[in-house]
Design brief:
DUF5819, 6-stranded antiparallel beta sheet, alpha+beta, single chain, 262 residues, Secreted protein
Length: 262
Amino acid sequence: MRRLLRVLSTSAPALLAAALCFHFAMTLAYLTPQNPLQLRFARLISGYMNPFFEQNWHLFAPDPITDTRLVMVACRLNEPDGSTTETGWTDITTPYWESHLENRLGPATRLGRSVTGAARMIYTVDPTSLQMAKKLDQQRARAQAGGGGAEAPDAQVAERLRDEVKKEQDAGVQLGKSVLERAGSAHCDSLYGRSRTAAVRLRLAVLKFPRFSRRDLPDSKGELTYYDFDWAPYRPVAPLDATTEDRRKTPVALQAAAAEER
């Protein structure tokens, strides 16, 4: 027993160092511009990083953040008489951030990042794949203008690469939807009790801030856009901590929505 403990105590630093090296190597591969090596191991890299380690860098603000994004959920509940009722929309992201402000060491930020990261996986478009598609369209247009003919080898390679990128994006979309549906199911359980929810529906609310020329206006006066998902079956999940549910402050996006209704 002592020998085992001695081996563990001596090998633990090496194992920890190896785990850290692996994590930072995967993070570096995830953040580098797209390249052949990254495309070859895209499934492994994305599977490790998404959705819990996904990062959204705005170093030196080349594309500064211009909006607030909230994930909302509606619940379809089973009633005792056999009927169903559909609830209104409830914000499920703001409570996480407010809970994080109250307790910096709590789990709220990790839960919140998994939800917002899943939403980004669904709606974020890869600029490299867009450039590849544009380049292919230009090459085909030139080939048709020149009388047709077989595709150039580089065009065939680009076509295969684009297909691989599309497969990875489709897999990311499905994973993002799965995470959001599970998060929505957990919130419906927390709000209305377990075993009552039959289906959940997610909504992404995007509030674009007023431009700099209108900086005197509050954020709630910005442009509010909704992206609605279809109803999805309820998924049994572990219960949420009740401290993330009862928040007092109304999110800016919901304030803007209330103003629109009035």
